[in-house]
Every structure is written in C-alpha cells, then in structure tokens.
Records
---
Amino acid sequence: MTDANPDRPSTALVVGAGSGIGLAVAELFASRGIRTVAADLDPSGPRQLAAQHEHIVVAGDAGWDATDPDACDRLLQEAVAQLGSVDRVVSTVGWTAITRFLDETPDYWRRIIDVNLMSAIHLSAAAGRVMKDSGGSIVLTSSEAGVAGQSGEAVYSAAKAGVVTLAKALAREWARFGIRVNVVAPGVTQTPLLESQGGEELLSSVVRAIPLRRAGEPSEIAAAIEFLSSDAASYVTGQTLCVGGGLTMSS
Ligand SMILES: NC(=O)c1ccc[n+]([C@@H]2O[C@H](COP(=O)([O-])OP(=O)(O)OC[C@H]3O[C@@H](n4cnc5c(N)ncnc54)[C@H](O)[C@@H]3O)[C@@H](O)[C@H]2O)c1
C-alpha cells in the first residue's frame, strides 16, 4: 500500500509545487493532513506555501532543478530527512511554448526534452532508490498532447508521450517493490503556463473542441493526482488518466 503505516500520517514530496497544478497538489495534500515537502526550481513558491500551511515544509533554502540527476537524489534524501519516509512522490515539472517545428532549434528541443522527460526520469530514479524497500506511489505529469499529439508542440508531445511509457515500464518493473507509478495528462488548465502561451486567446480557440466547454482548474487536476497517489488507487498502476474535459478520450 502507498500510505504504508496506518499509525502515522502519509508523507509526500511534490516537485513543481511553486505554481499552477503542483501548487494545487501541495495545498490539497496539506488540507488532507499529508506532511508534504514542496520543491521547485524557483524556491519562492514553496517558501510561501510553507508559511501558509503547517503541513508543508521546504527542503533547504535553494531551488531544485529536476533536470539534474544529482539534485534529484539530494532532494529525495532531504525529503526523507524531513519526513522520516516518503510515501508519495509527485512531479508536475514541465514547460512548453507554442511554435512551429521547422522554426525550432536543436537546443530548444533538448530543453523541452530535459524539462518534460528527463526530469521525470531523474525524479523517478531518485524516488525508486528510496522507495524500493518501503513501497510507495509515484505520479508523473504528462499532457493530452502526449497522448494525442499537438500541433505547435511536436517535441513537447513526444516528451510527454515518453512520460506515459516511462510510467508503464516502471510500473511493471517496480510492482515487486510495492511501488505504483501512474500519470495524469491534463488538458487545457488555467495556470501561469497557459497564460504564457496566450491565455484567453488560446482558450477561446480550443474551448469549442472541449466537450465540457471550458478549461480546467488546477484543483481539478490535483484531485486526480491525489487519487492516483493514494491508497484509494491501490490496484491502479501504469495508467494515464486524462483530465481535460473530454478533449482526449484515450480508451
Ligand atoms: N496548464 C496546462 O494547460 C497544462 C496542460 C497539459 C499539461 N500540463 C503540464 O502540467 C504540469 C504543470 O504545469 P502548470 O500549468 O502548472 O505550469 P506552471 O508553469 O504553472 O508550473 C510548473 C512549475 O514547474 C517548475 N519547474 C519548471 N522546470 C523545473 C525544473 N527543471 N525543476 C523543478 N521545477 C521546475 C516551475 O518553476 C513551475 O513552478 C507541466 O508538466 C505541464 O507540462 C499543463
């Protein structure tokens, strides 16, 4: 089971907790009494969260770069030091821009793959190293672009598809350790990332294609992440849950 010891509250590490969906996950965990280490490249968000919520702590003073494998290992060690153990690891790390494939450069592609796929690989490896004796749950963040493919986001789509199959493979490999690995694939969600892509203008062009006719709220994605990370999903592993108002119906 994820929340291994019923005599103590569950514990979590949320990476990407400074903004948007990750921030909503950390707040939801805190509201459920889950002791949570919040981490982000930009340390200001986690610091603010920790000041507002008694169940949230930060790991060290600096930011954590999830594209750096050593930093991921140090972060997991810090989280274990702060919490005693880590039952749930969530990564919402990601970044994208909307551009045309033929206008992009190899450096841009490398950055997109680093932030969206390598971060998930490094965090999963670091989490697996600390969870393989205790079990636990890992939830990674893909995108509906990673399931369906999105024009203007070709390499992001490929990187996010990599997150989906990474989780499937690790779910098979680590079931023996009692580690579940799942993915949430958000659709269009009202966050600072969406704002940076064009906000209302982008929204009005895509919302007609969404059966529920609106963008999602970060709290709606966080609810799906919380479910997959919890014992309520104890028989769910290797799955990708699209949370996008019906835009992508994956199976
Ligand atoms: N908002 C959407 O419409 C949408 C849609 C599909 C998928 N997603 C995915 O959801 C996830 C969260 O996105 P969001 O909209 O909340 O974005 P956001 O920009 O609001 O938050 C992302 C957070 O990740 C952090 N981060 C970025 N690079 C990092 C790194 N190398 N190490 C550690 N932290 C890093 C950022 O500092 C930021 O706080 C991302 O993986 C994104 O690709 C978002």
---
Amino acid sequence: MLKDRRFLPACLIMTLFVTLLSCNGTGNSNSNPDPVLPETLYVDVIGTLPHDTSAFTQGFEIHDGILWESTGHYGYSTLRKLDPSNGSIIETYPLPDTLFGEGITIVNEKIYQLTWQSGLVLEWDIENPVMTISDTIETEGWGICSVSSSTVVTSNGSSTLSFRDITSFNTLRTINVNIDGGTIGLLNELEYAVGYIYANRYYSDYIYRIDPETGNVTALIDASSLLSGYNRINAGALNGIAWDPEREAFLLTGKNWPTVFIVTF
Ligand SMILES: [Ca+2]
C-alpha cells in the first residue's frame, strides 16, 4: 500500500518538482497572470532531541509545554505524550488494533486524532487521555491542524485542504494548494503557525508554507539536509511539524527517524 512505501528515489522527487515548475513557466492555462513563485528557505538546526525509531510518526504538536505525537500502523498506533525539553516519552496511549493513527491537533483542551481509512475522528481529553469517537469524516484522514478555537484544517493526501467546524467536522470551505496554479498533492502532516499553514508532502523533503486564504504556496522549505546518509537507512518520510512558541522554532521529525530537529527557517 502507498503508506508503506517509505522511499522514492531522490531523482524522481526532483524530476517531479522541476516538471511542476517548468510546466508553470510555459504558460499553462491555470497560471496566474502575474505569477509569484515561492521563495526557497532552508532549515537552520539549533538543537536536537532523541526520537523513538519505532514511532511511525503521523502527527506532532506542542501544547502548554507538552509535545504530543501520533503514530500509525495497525496494531502499533498510539497517542504519545512527550517532554519537549529532552524528547523522553512521558506516557503512551495505544489505539485499538483496527485503527491506523494519523494527524493530531489540540483545540479547547481536547486532542483530535485522525485515522487513515476508517473515517473516524478520535477525541482525547488532554488531562485524562481516554479515547472516544468524536465525529466521522467523508475522506481518508492524513494531517490536521487547528487555525482557531472553532476551526481545524485537514488533509487527505490530495492537494485539497478542508476547513472544518470543530463541533461537527463538517466542511466549511476548501482550498487547493498550488504554486502558480499548479497543484501540490500528497499533502500530509500539517501545522499552523504565525498566520500560515505548513504541510509536509509525502515522500518529499520539502515543507510547504501555505496562505490559508488562497492556498498559494508562499515558501518552499528545503529540509533535505536534516538526515545524513547513515541516519536515512531505516528512516521513512519527513512527517512531523510542531511549532514551539517558547523556542520560536519548529520541531521536525519523520516516520521512524532517530532524531527530532529543532529548527528555524
Ligand atoms: Ca503538526
């Protein structure tokens, strides 16, 4: 299955990326009349934390000094409470074997966790994490972030991000993530910070900074320098973005990565 394919040759990634940009440069019909191509930013590592290499990371978020992580795979999916000062696991809350954990976000002291194909949205009280079923959604669940106390944004592996009412998970509106009209698919883990949505793209070492009103990508963040060749051997895709307001930095990790990187862009 798609979700189990952890590696794609770097040359193919670059080919897809270059093809996207070159198509937009040849005047395709979706191009804006005054294209504004995104700037490219690079990660500046200011610290590292250890990360459990058995964690198939699907969601990553900091709230009130706690780092929360969601992990996937049937039989191994969990919600985890971590110490962001040293990366240690404070508590692990397993999901039923029939559920494949995906993205998480925290709104009004509730943790909302997506599941991949069941359509179920799980809810955990942040003080006493016991799992209940909050709502259902009509698509696969991949990533989720909250943009206000009433609205969350979800991804489903396509280029579409859905803004949803937290009380029902009904879709309020959608945006099509694009660079000059060229859509950016395979959007996965999400994070909202300082007015922008940040998204991993599955298989890619890039993070996309997205205007939440238009879906336009305003910056490409090249995170390909994070893992050395040795550390990549058993590591999967980049798939954890958590904004740390105290450090004013992002914590980045990936599926089965040995390290959480504390970075600025
Ligand atoms: Ca996140």
---
Amino acid sequence: METEQTTEERKAHNEALFREANESVRAVQADLGLPAGRPMPFICECDDARCKTIVRLTQAEYEAIRAHARRFLVAPGHDGDENLAAKYGDYDVVEKSGIAGEIAEATNPRKERG
Ligand SMILES: [Zn+2]
C-alpha cells in the first residue's frame, strides 16, 4: 500500500514538473507577443517522466486548463480514461483526485501568493 502511494506521489510530481515547464513556455510565448489564437506547442503533462510528446493548443485553451489546479493537459490517451475530464482533437484534459490531486494543488504554479 505504501509503495503504491509513493508511486502515486512520484507520478504526481512528474506531472507538476511538466506543468512548470509549460508555464515557462507560455511566458516566453507571451514575451514574444505571439498571436494568442494560434496553437502553440506545449509538453504533454502525463506522469511518464520520459514522455516528450508535444501537444498544440491556443493560449486560451491552455489558460482554461490552468484555471483548475488539478487539471493537466496530455496527449490523447496518455493518462487513461480514469481521470479524463475532457477530450479534444489534439489533446486530453485530465483531472487528478486523491493524493495526486492534493499534490497537484500544493504545487499549483498559479496558487495565490499572500
Ligand atoms: Zn505523455
């Protein structure tokens, strides 16, 4: 049981790392003044640390996902159906629950500061 939870935690932290990376990607895109309506490359935020899949979505689509602390964007099918919140053409949106959800909230880069 404990091993299982540790695995869950490790996976959740992998997802959090990819989310951090995508936040940097978004910041660079904003700095460059790239058109918001054009799909931009983001990294798949699934729990596989080796996954380097690129998914393309617009800034608005990305923001809609980031508005939820427990939601992640992944390439289609990369996180199974268990956590699936929404399915689009080029990407899936998953919502974490349990320990993974708690870690997702604790590591949320958009968390209110002070
Ligand atoms: Zn992936």
